[in-house]
Amino acid sequence: MEKAEVTRQVIEAKQRLGLKWKDIAGAIGRSEAWTATALLGQAPLSPEEAQKVGSLLELPEDAVQALTVIPYRGTTVPMPPTDPVLYRFYEILLVYGPALKELIHEKFGDGIMSAIDFEMSVRRVEDPKGDRVQVVMNGKFLPYRKW
Amino acid sequence: MEKAEVTRQVIEAKQRLGLKWKDIAGAIGRSEAWTATALLGQAPLSPEEAQKVGSLLELPEDAVQALTVIPYRGTTVPMPPTDPVLYRFYEILLVYGPALKELIHEKFGDGIMSAIDFEMSVRRVEDPKGDRVQVVMNGKFLPYRKW
Amino acid sequence: MEKAEVTRQVIEAKQRLGLKWKDIAGAIGRSEAWTATALLGQAPLSPEEAQKVGSLLELPEDAVQALTVIPYRGTTVPMPPTDPVLYRFYEILLVYGPALKELIHEKFGDGIMSAIDFEMSVRRVEDPKGDRVQVVMNGKFLPYRKW
Amino acid sequence: MEKAEVTRQVIEAKQRLGLKWKDIAGAIGRSEAWTATALLGQAPLSPEEAQKVGSLLELPEDAVQALTVIPYRGTTVPMPPTDPVLYRFYEILLVYGPALKELIHEKFGDGIMSAIDFEMSVRRVEDPKGDRVQVVMNGKFLPYRKW
Amino acid sequence: MEKAEVTRQVIEAKQRLGLKWKDIAGAIGRSEAWTATALLGQAPLSPEEAQKVGSLLELPEDAVQALTVIPYRGTTVPMPPTDPVLYRFYEILLVYGPALKELIHEKFGDGIMSAIDFEMSVRRVEDPKGDRVQVVMNGKFLPYRKW
Amino acid sequence: MEKAEVTRQVIEAKQRLGLKWKDIAGAIGRSEAWTATALLGQAPLSPEEAQKVGSLLELPEDAVQALTVIPYRGTTVPMPPTDPVLYRFYEILLVYGPALKELIHEKFGDGIMSAIDFEMSVRRVEDPKGDRVQVVMNGKFLPYRKW
Amino acid sequence: MEKAEVTRQVIEAKQRLGLKWKDIAGAIGRSEAWTATALLGQAPLSPEEAQKVGSLLELPEDAVQALTVIPYRGTTVPMPPTDPVLYRFYEILLVYGPALKELIHEKFGDGIMSAIDFEMSVRRVEDPKGDRVQVVMNGKFLPYRKW
Amino acid sequence: MEKAEVTRQVIEAKQRLGLKWKDIAGAIGRSEAWTATALLGQAPLSPEEAQKVGSLLELPEDAVQALTVIPYRGTTVPMPPTDPVLYRFYEILLVYGPALKELIHEKFGDGIMSAIDFEMSVRRVEDPKGDRVQVVMNGKFLPYRKW
Amino acid sequence: MEKAEVTRQVIEAKQRLGLKWKDIAGAIGRSEAWTATALLGQAPLSPEEAQKVGSLLELPEDAVQALTVIPYRGTTVPMPPTDPVLYRFYEILLVYGPALKELIHEKFGDGIMSAIDFEMSVRRVEDPKGDRVQVVMNGKFLPYRKW
Amino acid sequence: MEKAEVTRQVIEAKQRLGLKWKDIAGAIGRSEAWTATALLGQAPLSPEEAQKVGSLLELPEDAVQALTVIPYRGTTVPMPPTDPVLYRFYEILLVYGPALKELIHEKFGDGIMSAIDFEMSVRRVEDPKGDRVQVVMNGKFLPYRKW
Questions:
Q1: Coiled-coil regions in this chain (chains A, B, C, D, E, F, G, H, I, J) (predicted)?
Q2: How far are the Cα atoms of A75, A108, G17, G87 from residue J80, in angstroms, in the given order?
């Protein structure tokens, strides 16, 4: 079964069963951000995780199997993103990218923030002038190797 | 004076004077992330801020003036970014974008995180397995208008 | 059901039943511009709105359900648009874009017109030399945050 | 003199003299939107208009001459626009484009809104929840010729 | 029925019945160029025209209906065109475009040749050194509006 | 001397001397369309033609020499064209291209209209409803070789 | 029947029947290069040629019919080619293109090698250091028309 | 000295001295095609060859030196080529590419024609119906390695 | 059978049977890297190899047949790659490409590393600070031909 | 001083002084591959390394200073590369990329080869059938984080 088809079944089941991402995350002991990432086809689940998700979402066996496959990542977001939610992150890179590069180098030296040894979270922060979205990205600093 | 030329002079003066972004930020009472963004040509300073930065960095008067101009933003980062520091943020959008969209909608409904009423910070988090880069993005949630 | 399929059914039903956008808009108490936007797959309806539209257009239940899903926006217009109706708006941005930017900054300062807290209308204005299309766009001004 | 150089001189003089677009527009009896468009290099002035603008902005004779040249339009906005002010109009086309096409055809039949026999205005609309940008676009409807 | 499918049926029927474009054009009182344009999915027919074409080409009712729909134009020619017949017109624009612009402005002033209030014809011109293709394009001059 | 620089000098001299393309064309016994094409850097002049144009436009000797060089054609029009005059011809290809291909094949068989053994003209056609631009393109039909 | 489907059937039949391109070419009295070009969907066969090929390859009648249709050429090679065999020809154009242009102009004057009145062949040339591929391209020189 | 500047000087000297490519080729004992390729900046000359060319074309010492540098190849032809001479070779790849691939595989098996161990020539072939350009490409067949 | 379908069946069978690439490679006496390349549709197997693979993986006869077809290579990796594993190799080319070119020329002269007479391997190298991926690429040096 | 200018001076001095990359590498105790990478502007040198290189290559002080700046990487190789040496690595990714991904996952699990904690070497391997280029890439395996 193709990853795209599993994703479709996951979304449909989640909606039908009235579950939230944190419910599914709780069932496998993972964060909601990682769980959503994996079930949207961008990371593989372990066989045990896949079984638990399959039970919770009442997925067929071949979908459970497909959840454990390491995916070709990054195939679902067109670039530049046409969807405004995603485009704003692209715009943040256009506008704030130079400052991100400068600050990382000033604080760490020559290297990068890993996007592999990486985690993130999305939180709703209450604010009287309108609630705010807080996205925390956290990646290991990798210094450039000299040899 | 062109924004690109001011940026060049700012970088040169900052290096010559041995200043850090937070030193410059302190002089105008702003965060280091916003200060770096503005001095890299991606936001205008108020005339007072520009004067203070000009004094600190010993910039000529036309550079001070140029710092107050509202810029055409986003012109310095090629897309996709060729620089690995910036590319990793692009990759995060490719891989974690679908989860970002899902979680924002689940927590807030139909709308976006603003990239205008927005702030961010970059912090070094110590970790025995290797220090980590933490980027916090914080933007107002804007619900889609229906009319 | 995919958004594209719902859109196809909506268009077909609208034509078969001889309805206009304002007829459908009237049934849910919305403007014709927003109603067309939503039924063309670019905005979600509330469950109540979806039920009313479903009754009016005699849509099956899964189509009604699909109308309430928050879409991936912006996927149906290729850029640059090949269709002349849409291309003219693209051309307006090419030719009048610099003036739009200048005037918004002169009247409001540094910031943007929101495309989220936004509404628009299309009206036919009679003119002896040939009737005219009037498009009114109205979005909240969002000032850039400094922090 | 190149259009880009004239534009640079116009912007510099406007700032130095503390003029607004409507001041310049008043001097030639045109709207501020058209005046900004022309002085940003996207439309030619008549010789009389160019003389008046030249006097007001204290431009050299070759700049005045250059203002009357019919330009290659559309060369200053990269597509997709990297600047957020301009990008929002691009996004409006992505999201609201299908509705614009539908409504124009429903109200007028097969044809387009002209971007040549076209005018627009930008206005600040006060609003207790935050002032709003109103852009009115008005173009002649051109029906497709059948022959 | 999709426009692409109607086009396929039209081409097939035209071939099967041994008709030429001018035969079909004659049946609806239009030029062969416009008739070919419409039947290739780039313009809508009136209901009467569609009925006549449907009878002549023995099309099913839903194809007749589809012929009256206003299309999304311009979706069938990839750009740059890979087909040599179409590429030559693209090349003409590359090579002769600057002269076209200069001559239109010299003869008419600032404005364009309309591609909407437009007609064209294709004719075979006999020539002893090899017959020639003559394409006549004729569009209303639209002067740029100043306001 | 670069072609672009010659073009700049030609345009400047033409304007200064109050000449029209047909005046220059007359001096060398060519059509105004070909003359404009060549002087805009898209075709080489013979040495005699270059001398005559040089005298008429009071060009320096190295510009006269440069006019005789066979150019790299097609380098001045960006694709898709951002200028509306040129874009309309691009749009004609998008919308009317399929009909052009069909009609050429129906009248001539498998082959193309040459863009090399090619000529064109631009004419102003008076019309009470607004004068019209008539562009006549005329190219030798080249049948595909079978071997 | 679509050209792509005919091509698929031709390739399959050729393999099944153990034929070579020159066998098929011999049956219709054409060169192997043209025959391969036509049967890969890039040129139309005459009805007689199509019948002969149909008999030889045991194709169904609608495939035979489809072989006579003038194709939209150039749709099967993505550019730049991802396949190394085809990419090498693309690279030859990148590296040797300037010399090709210079030599054609030196030997013929201003004009081009036709790709329509054109033939080519592919030959295996034995060589003790490794056999060589020889591709001969032969096209009529077309001088640019001046008018 | 940059390759582009050397090329400019070579072209200028060749024209001033009335030399042809085969004259320069003769001076270094190479073919005219390779000589043109190298002097247009697409291949390095040996020091001896560079000295001979420098003497013949009266080039300064730093130009002679620059002729021996191994270049970044392929930087002067934009893709797709806008120049019609070069475009025709691009089109040949679009139209005849599938046949080239098939014939090379049929005659040689799995592998490619080298574009490195490669030579070519351009020749004028007289023909009563119009002289023809003959381009012969000859590259070593390289079989794909299996390991 | 399409290559993509064969690949799908191979992956599925390999997983079902619990085989590793080196198991399959062993069955045909090839390296695991070449075997994976071929079974992922990027190289043809000999009929004998295909039979052995077919037996081992229990593939149907038409899949075995399809494995022997010379493929259109390079069609499965979008460029730039969206998948992070593949992107890193793309990034290596961006960052280390200039050094690769310099070192190859310094050690070998003007020419390239063949990607046809080429082999590679992937190995896991143990390292107390974290195991490392070692990719060895080995291609014949091909000197540029001068003629 | 811009990185590009330093690179130019380094290349010129290296050639003038008859040095090889390993000579420069030896002076700073680094590998030739890293040294070439850094001096071609793709990595920063430490101040001590920069001083040593400056002495060896007789560079001015501002060039020495510029060598220590962390660069925007990846700006000198256009993609796809037009130079054949670099293109071959791009092609390797097209053809062998799927196998690289499969083998890395089979040997290591879900994760990537780092391009930051990475080193490489280029070596000449003698071979009677023609010497071979051996490129060894060695990067730390980074497992994807789950959280």
A1: none
A2: 20, 32, 40, 12
